[in-house]
Specification:
Strand content: under 5%
Helix content: 55-70%
Order of helices and strands: HHHHHHHHHHHEHEEHHHHHHH
Radius of gyration: 22 Å
Largest sheet: 3 strands, antiparallel
Number of strands: 3
Shape: globular
Number of helices: 19
Strand order of the largest sheet: 1-3-2
Number of domains: 1
Low-confidence stretches: 422-433
Distance between the termini: 50 Å
């Protein structure tokens, strides 16, 4: 007699330990969630005091941008600005605390965005008609992952587009299509990468007969940028990116640098403008192929979820998050530029996606994030001069982990027996209307 092998997660859920966890969480769900949020918030407050002594170049750049704009210099015309237009208010807001307190003000606004992400994850947990321990996974995964980015988390503005994208997913699943489209447009105007979400979201909205409403919100959000273009050449921010080569954290650079450490090639780890690159004849020859592969993978990763959406009309918030991780991971993992803060974009969607489907896929993203300090700032300041063999191996593992998650999510969405979606683990959430 052949016994069917159960998945590891299902076996754990049926164990006595899991049953005890369910019993404990039945009466303490709210307290446990608030405790996670409180502990995480206390950690970040402590990091603010430490970070105050080590202000990094990105934060100083934001401060200089804000000072120039308040002094009357026009962005994209009187000074180079390498960020989209909607990022400008994020840079100006901390000036409310005064010039000398700008870094602290910026960090406090980052903490606000971080807290709002936790609040959205908490709301999704409360909407679930379940007391299972898995209901805590979004908050637990997010709160466990972000401390590993503490070296730069408070000094980058990347948490803001991550928050807006998470809000867009929540609004979309709440059937607020105009506001969801508006949120996606704002996110595009802040960091550009959310443009890869548009095909899938538009197709899903069309399938639900709400495509026009989503499109209206999207157009309303992009209208100010279009009008701004009549006076300022904001598109020049993209010209700054044209000079980028193979940034050291990228998949391509990690492979090339490994060959350098093994003595197979001659390459240099050099600072270029505000980042580090791998340079040399082999790097120059690889760059056009890397760009071509990036464009191809982003196009595929954006169209594949749209194709999945043509087969399924309704998506829960976790299902939609898992679907949108495909284009996001395609954009990040195959990019010739893979800055450490790109992990901040992924974490909120991965946390939300852990509610349904295979949770270990989302835990792989947690693992990739946990490896970040080994890569940046690295041990002993190696990031400045070039990672050693161990650190380079970890970097390659991190990059391959992201690609593995990308492949697993594509496979998950392609399984015909599941209708292109992972089987739901929870009852439907309560009505959001």
């Amino acid at each position: 007699m052949v016994t069917e092998k159960r998945p590891a997660w299902q076996s754990f859920c049926n164990s006595k330990i899991a049953q005890n966890l369910v019993t404990f969480t039945n009466g303490h769900k709210f307290v446990i969630a608030c405790g996670l949020m409180l502990i995480s918030s206390v950690f970040w407050v402590l990091v603010v005091f430490v970070s105050d002594r080590y202000i990094q170049g990105d934060l100083l750049l934001y401060q200089n941008i804000a000072s120039d704009l308040l002094a009357g210099k026009l962005p994209y015309r009187d000074r180079v600005l390498e960020y989209p237009p909607y990022a400008i208010p994020i840079f100006i807001l901390p000036t409310l605390f005064g010039k000398s307190a700008y870094p602290q003000g910026f960090m406090l606004f980052v903490l606000l965005a971080d807290w709002l992400i936790k609040l959205l994850l908490f709301i999704e947990m409360r909407l679930r008609q379940s007391n299972a321990p898995r209901a805590f996974l979004p908050l637990l995964l997010y709160c466990a992952a972000t401390p590993f980015t503490c070296f730069f988390f408070l000094q980058r503005y990347d948490v803001w587009p991550a928050l807006i994208c998470l809000a867009a997913v929540w609004l979309f699943c709440s059937k607020r299509y105009i506001f969801s489209g508006l949120a996606v447009a704002i996110a595009i105007g802040v960091k550009l990468y959310p443009v890869v979400f548009v095909p899938a979201l538009f197709v899903i909205a069309m399938r639900q007969g709400k495509g026009r409403r989503f499109l209206v919100g999207l157009m309303l959000g992009l209208l100010p940028i279009a009008l701004l273009g009549l006076h300022l050449p904001w598109w020049r921010f993209a010209e700054f990116q044209n000079d980028r080569g193979l940034q050291v954290e990228s998949l391509y650079a990690s492979i090339l640098w490994l060959t350098k450490l093994l003595g197979w090639t001659q390459l240099d780890w050099v600072p270029f403008k505000a980042w580090m690159e791998i340079q040399g004849p082999l790097a120059s020859a690889t760059l056009p192929w890397a760009r071509a592969l990036f464009v191809t993978m982003v196009a595929f990763s954006s169209m594949f979820p749209a194709w999945v959406a043509t087969r399924t009309e309704k998506f829960s918030a976790p299902q939609l998050a898992r679907l949108l991780l495909i284009p996001l991971l395609g954009f990040v993992a195959f990019n010739q530029v893979l800055s450490p803060q790109f992990m901040i974009w992924i974490l909120p969607l991965a946390a939300l996606g852990s509610l349904e489907g295979n949770p270990w896929t989302m835990f792989a993203i947690l693992l990739a994030t946990m490896l970040t300090p080994i890569i940046f700032p690295s041990f002993g300041g190696d990031y400045t001069w070039g990672l050693n063999l161990f650190e380079t191996t970890i970097l390659l593992v991190r990059n391959l982990t992201l690609i593995a998650v990308w492949i697993l999510l594509i496979r998950e969405m392609s399984l015909p027996r599941l209708g292109g979606l992972a089987k739901r683990e929870f009852p439907a959430p309560q009505s959001r209307t």
